């Protein structure tokens, strides 16, 4: 490392330290910043010049000091850096932009391109453009993004596996394709893991360092937050609980590929069960659950059965990862009628059951998780990484030198 | 923070940085150290004076330089800091001391004090003394220790729960009791988690960041290493897979407290099964497994059944945490006859099974895990923690100032 | 066959026909009998002489005829032929004598000889003597008997197999031993089959030609009446439903000999379940069931589980033998609390469940069955058999000639 | 009853007795018959005149007597009375005529009328006509018939219930409809019961009084012969083992109507299992079993699973009816590959398994059973019934008087 670059690095590090403190403590005066960071007055002036010039910092008011003088206080310009998040499902894509203070500045939901593959990749890129327009910010202000997708993203191979309901993504180097189109750094997350992350950020997992989020809808999946980190597993397949040995014999050939639990719960299973009892055919699952309020004994029985399967699955999850809480989500899991039954079932198989609640974010959980994840990634890029950061990468050529 | 302390802190930080580099790169010369750390020559002299005076560093030889001059090279004095580890089981305690280079300098195994509680605590303290004597090092050189215990250690409450086979430890603030007796900082780990840690350090988990260690003996338990960290769970009960819904209906009252899987596998279950088939009574489990080689069809059937239960348990574990490998340990799990059957069972319920192997460390796995864990703790205390470290705590009064 | 014996046979046959009609239609006059049987007046006189002389028939009154004359009417002397029945259980023996009109003339209950084997055989013989004394009839008037025993009586080999709770009877030629001691013809029946027979005779099976009686107490067993006959099976083991594949995996080694259903229900299972839930230890099963009225949720859960097992067993029984009704008996099966739960369970697994009721005879069902069975045997011996009958065998030497 | 009819009855009874003996003992001379029956010479002459005139008896040869004279010997004319049998399946009808000696004189197989109901009834009637023509006997010589049908024939209501695969027969008073079209007395039997009967008559059940025949093909069903009688149950549904609690939880809503065992075995289940393991799609079950010889591990696994279910079903059947043997039939059950696996499975769940063999009659078992059943019915009508018999009914007006 040359002396020159080492000086540049030092300046950049100082610049980061100051920016970090403004973000964490702002509005704040220069004097306070100097005291905290130990940065000398002249350097601080230089730093502020750069930060203001580059749009990171803005004056946010004036504060009366102790000795009668008032001081200007500064904040980070919230929209200087935006994070893009998208939760891509088989039928819908939810996408949003969040600013540096965590405020969502634009949000949308569209139908997923049925052609899958590159069409979906293109669709995601268009959404980023649309949202920037909607929020009235420059597209280049989007510095990072996270995309939630069904399936297991194997970080080692960079490939998405086990994608159940979007064509043309299985085995794909999806992250590279997305970064190429979006022009900012992208991370990929499993959709249910993202929902767990979302619940931790602003939902039923707030304040918890270890909990599980179980999504029960068309199928069943789980995201686990363990010591504040998403549990991914060796191949990104942690939480794929469709195969849990619950509800059927795991050695029965019929569940070998589909998964024992998956065949026992979820929309298709609920409809099958209801019809097998002689219930009305082709009824929507939502409607079957609604019938509980009409004292439909078939619906009650079906839900009891599903709840017992989910209860045993929760038992298995607790045996392996010991979460402080289990949050139920998904179109079926979010129903109060399901929650009460699952709680009863769990009480029947666990002497010391965990707290069980319903998702607070509903269908937006996954999206909020991508925003939280993307924001964390950006923070790490800006403030934790050594040396050359994404912040610098963003800015082309000579400019980078100025910032650093 | 006063200026004085801030200077002391800077000196201490410098001292740490130098020591860290000697440990990581030694034998190394002062010149090389200065180049790497950017520490000036006078400061380096001062640092070396302190490190040598305090016994951390020793001359380990002389190296021929490029320009004909030879330079002295330095290493860390391995036994300046020792770590104590003990794996406390219902019948035996294994204990050892490991030095800073990872070499075990003394090791022993004794019968567990049957009276339990304080007797076991005292026994552990005596073991530390004995080992120090045996290694011929000062007792005060033991700077940290880790104790592996059956049960779940809830870090939040500091209490040990669910202790199956040692009296007087359930609900105990065991860490405080041990630190009071041992005089150095102690961490507590679940015995099976420690075994997993041991396998990662020097066994079948070497090089793996995510894997599961399943101990099958009297009972069944699991330790998971996930992204290089022990998976503990919210209450320290992660991996308590005795309750997995496998081998019996989890809603059956008879498995409500004992756990479905626990009643289906383990020594008692194997004996029950063997006798229920009309096999010889009161036969030791080891002997029952031995009989496989005598074409005992009852033994074969019993082992097949147990393997199917273990196989379904592995399926459940993979569904939740997706390990890259499953290592079988414990008196039963370590048997080749069991491994081959479990592999066959897993192939029958998982289309893409994980690698499954046997523990390489056998009954020493847990002990080695405590040594690894203790060494990591010490490293963190010495080199990662901010400000006042255990290293400093170790040294009383004015001495601390000298080191820092 | 000589002419002489053929005439004797004809006379005996005539005698039987007349006796049969008196038994079925009495009180009845000689004239009516002559009209019905076509027996000539002189032969009828001869027949009556013999029947009266031998004590079979007695004048029971006088009836006003159509044309003013009154006629004597005759009935069978009820106590001319008695039938002995005994229901032999592990702890108690119930025994009784029944006369030709079906009236029980003496009945007793004693503790089973704990020494088993010949001691029990002798005890049964003593009971026959005691009952005859109590009823004040000649011991020789007991012409037949039926003994109900636990286990399967294999008529082909004449041996009693699978005797769970009386020593010294397994594999025994029990019928020969009993006939040798009792001095009259004896038939052996399974105790639960006898209870089914008793319920058909005078209990909840009255008027039904096909039903099942399930005894649930210490263990579980079943007697089936099919087209008015006891279903025995090829080796007398029909109804041994302890082995039904219900409540546990029938391929699990632990149920290989004991039977899956047997391990899931019955007194021991109920106690195990109750205690496994944390219920009071060493509580009598009767008391556990009583606790339902005290809102003991553990007792409720245990009974629900047992009822589900019994319900699935009833499903299996219906699939195989299609009974019109299932009668629950035994100390546990007779409880109203169990009945209501079993009905609910059955409704959950059978779209068209059979009628399910409780035994009307309680602990006397088996005894009454032996009396019914013995009476039928005697009837067949007297009136259905060709040639030399037990009736004739009873009467020694020359007398036989007289009767015939 | 008038004197006249009573004389007629006596003559008819005599005629029957003689005919019975000729049938049982023929060829036989008049003198021998007289000796056996005690019928006087003149009466015997009269009886022979009538029997010959009516075609029942024919001279079958001449036998050398003891004292030099030869005597004519008589036999029953085999085709004087024929019995019609038909085994009606969802796709095929097998039908045949059997004569009085048990010889099948005509047999055919046709596709079942797909329109069902009355079309099938008409088709059966046509088959009787066709077979009579083929055998070259008068249609009026068919005196009785038995029709085997899928479903449960409730003798009490005269209705056929639970007919799985022929339209328009459910709930039908099928016997009345058939008798109206066929013009002779008809009995209805369940097709699998008939197969059991057939196996007892001329197959793997010959000589056994108690055994079970399990048909495993599209679905699963059972016929039990108990003490030489078909076990029918209260509503004709005995042996409907599709609902046995084997292979799935009987309380699972999905098996509530279809039956747990039915969903686990049979053609559809085998195909499902094979495909779920990744096997070739839309393969015929016969072909899947064939693949065992090509070491197809998927086929082997599927068959093992099916065999375990069948094995547990056999366990249940033995627990309830204790058969001496279990005969496997049906397109799947008749396969040697299935037999060997079922035997192995049964050895794994029963310490004392029954003998298990394969059907000897294959797809003709049911037909042969109807012929045996019809022949028995005819025998009873001719020789066991009191008073007015079908034999008499057959012969119109004055003729009847002459015979009687």
TrEMBL record, chains A, B, C, D:
Regions crossing the membrane: none
Domain (HTH crp-type): residue spans on this chain: 20-69
GO molecular function, one term: DNA binding
InterPro entries per the UniProt record, alphabetical: ATPase_NBD, HTH_CRP, ROK, WH-like_DNA-bd_sf, WH_DNA-bd_sf
Pfam families reported for this sequence: HTH_24 (PF13412), ROK (PF00480)
Biological-process GO terms, alphabetical: regulation of DNA-templated transcription
Keyword set, alphabetical order: Kinase, Transferase
Protein family membership: Belongs to the ROK (NagC/XylR) family.
Name the UniProt record assigns to this protein: Putative NBD/HSP70 family sugar kinase
Lineage: Bacteria, Pseudomonadati, Pseudomonadota, Alphaproteobacteria, Rhodobacterales
């Amino acid at each position: 490392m040359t002396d020159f670059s080492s000086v540049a690095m030092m300046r950049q590090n100082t610049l980061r330290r100051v920016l970090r403190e403004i973000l964490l403590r702002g509005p704040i005066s220069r004097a306070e910043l100097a005291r905290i960071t130990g940065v000398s007055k002249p350097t601080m002036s230089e730093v502020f010049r750069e930060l203001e010039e580059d749009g990171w910092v803005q004056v946010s008011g004036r504060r009366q000091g102790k000795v009668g003088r008032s001081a200007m206080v500064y904040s980070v310009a919230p929209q200087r850096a935006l994070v893009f998040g998208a939760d891509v499902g088989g039928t819908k894509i939810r996408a949003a932009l969040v600013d540096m203070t965590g405020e969502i500045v634009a949000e949308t939901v569209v139908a997923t391109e049925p052609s899958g593959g590159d069409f979906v990749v293109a669709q995601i890129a268009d959404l980023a453009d649309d949202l920037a327009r909607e929020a009235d910010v420059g597209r280049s202000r989007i510095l990072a993004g996270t995309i939630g997708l069904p399936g297991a993203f194997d970080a080692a191979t960079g490939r998405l596996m086990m994608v159940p309901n979007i064509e043309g993504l299985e085995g794909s180097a999806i992250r590279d394709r997305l970064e190429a189109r979006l022009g900012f750094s992208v991370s990929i997350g499993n959709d249910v893991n993202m929902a767990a992350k979302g619940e931790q950020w602003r939902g039923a997992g707030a304040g918890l360092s270890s909990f599980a989020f179980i999504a029960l809808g068309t199928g069943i999946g789980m995201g686990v937050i363990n010591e504040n980190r998403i549990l991914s597993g060796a191949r990104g397949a942690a939480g794929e609980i469709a195969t849990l040995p619950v509800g059927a014999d795991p050695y029965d050939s019929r569940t070998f590929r589909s998964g024992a639990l998956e065949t026992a719960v979820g929309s298709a299973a609920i409809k099958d069960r209801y019809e097998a009892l002689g219930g009305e055919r082709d009824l929507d699952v939502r409607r079957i659950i609604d019938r509980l309020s009409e004292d439909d004994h078939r619906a009650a029985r079906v839900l009891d059965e599903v709840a017992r399967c989910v209860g045993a699955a929760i038992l298995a999850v607790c045996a392996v990862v010991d979460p402080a809480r289990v949050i139920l989500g998904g179109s079926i899991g979010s129903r109060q009628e399901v929650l009460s039954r699952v709680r009863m079932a769990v009480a029947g198989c666990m002497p010391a059951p965990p707290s069980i609640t319903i998702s607070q974010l509903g269908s937006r959980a996954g999206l909020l998780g991508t925003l939280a994840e993307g924001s964390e990634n950006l923070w790490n890029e800006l403030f934790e990484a050594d040396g050359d950061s994404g912040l610098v990468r963003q800015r082309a050529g000579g400019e980078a030198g100025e910032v650093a």
